[in-house]
Amino acid sequence: MKKIFFTALILTITFNSLAQERWSREKAQNWYEEHDWLSGANFIPSTAINQLEMWQEERFDPETIDRELGYAESIGFNTMRVYLHSLAYKADKEGFKNRMEEYLKIADSHNIKTMFVFFDDVWDANPEIGKQRDPKPGIHNSGWVQDPGFPESVDMADSNELESYVKDILNTFGDDERILLWDLYNEPGNNDKGNKSMALLKNVFEWAREANPSQPLSAGLWRWNLKDLNTFQALNSDIITYHCYDDPEAHTRIIELLKTHGRPMICTEYMARTRNNTFANTLPLLKENNIGAINWGLVNGKTNTIYAWNTPIESGEEPVQWFHDVFRKDGTPYRQDEANLIKKLNVESEN
């Protein structure tokens, strides 16, 4: 019995020692310098209200994805941040991975790399597989769903089901050069969860390190009073990612604080026009500091993110000023001056 115990212990220690450690600052910086300045958007096709509608077989829409990533390519965007969903995987594991492959082929044809997101604490806590609801007129992200939901994010934090999901995706795509980075958990602690999200956050990093993908891992900082979560995210991410919807003065303070980590940085959510966070005042700031810039929203669609978070328009009429998004469905920019600026800064980076 003792021999069996010690053999098992040695195997466990050996396995853990093979798990990837956090990248060194030098490795992270070398990786970052291999890429052009990273510029792009959080992407979901305009025909999908949420991640489940995007990824389920019945609603997967490669034609729209191809067309709308073409809009992104036309202004020089080279990176898209795309949310996955564990329920879509659970319902159809091989089909889900096949659809990821199809998406990646489309994105690659437009010279766009992808940053995939696993878990998410934002909006509706009760995701359900199957047909998704219709959008509520004039309400921002009226159908977006959390992953895995709540209380599932606590109850399933150490479940074999979520571990198998994360490791299967990373083992399948962990050496895929079309994938830029793995964003393991979007806004942990949101919806007043706070430290209730810590167990799943720690576990998804552990699972990902054991899967050992060639791409870097990160989880973006987003609310500065979540001390424990912020500390863990910052000290375990290979690349520092963060969200900022504040004005340039506040954003600059955040940049100066995060620079102290000595790692490359990507702002994975920004651009809220009615909060004085615009392409005109924020995109040049990010480029000047060599920080990747991923704004929220590409094409106005079923997510309704042209409407501000807390300012619904019950009639569903178009707001005077869009909150997020760059293009209308036909590919016309909401503001041509913004599209010109984005393209100009991206072209300069390529030269």
TrEMBL record:
Keyword match Hydrolase: yes
Superkingdom field: Bacteria
Signal peptide extent: 1-19
Biological process, per Gene Ontology: polysaccharide catabolic process
Record keywords, A-Z: Glycosidase, Hydrolase, Signal
Protein family (similarity comment): Belongs to the glycosyl hydrolase 5 (cellulase A) family.
Protein name, UniProt field: Cellulase family glycosylhydrolase
Record organism: Christiangramia sediminis
